[in-house]
Amino acid sequence: xxxxxxxxxxxxxxxxxxxxxxxxxxxxxxxxxxxxxxxxxxxxxxxxxxxxxxxxxxxxxxxxxxxxxxxxxxxxxxxxxxxxxxxxxxxxxxxxxxxxxxxxxxxxxxxxxxxxxxxxxxxxxxxxxxxxxxxxxxxxxxxxxxxxxxxxxxxxxxxxxxxxxxxxxxxxxxxx
Length: 176
Prior knowledge:
Blueprint: H1 3-22, H2 44-51, H3 63-70, H4 109-112, H5 120-128, H6 130-133, H7 147-160, H8 163-172
Helix pairs in contact: 3-7, 5-7
């Protein structure tokens, strides 16, 4: 096989894999056209104010770099309010959500047994090496070993998945 043919096969395999992760029928189960929600477009001042509420060191993370890190996740996860599951569960509202509880997503037994509530710290530990933290997870992603890259991603996720709204709602809820 020529070098060109091998290269072409590799490109096709990667494209097919990405298409499989990101492919979804454009029709909902009821036959209606599905429209993906767009992430909220915050002003720079809003981003700064929201990020200031994050715990250190996430409150000083680089959100633009975090958005670039999210490109590693985008093929399998959504972060928009429509909560659409793909190959992986949707991440909108993940902060404060118990592991393995996204609606209408089938989790691995390993993730079902993981038993954490996702927050800045639990995501930081998990995203460093998912395969080691939850042995048997079906998430094939190898993780983000670089601390700064991981913090940037988590801060971006917190902003885009409304972690600040969940925190303010729980703070204002009457205690029992």
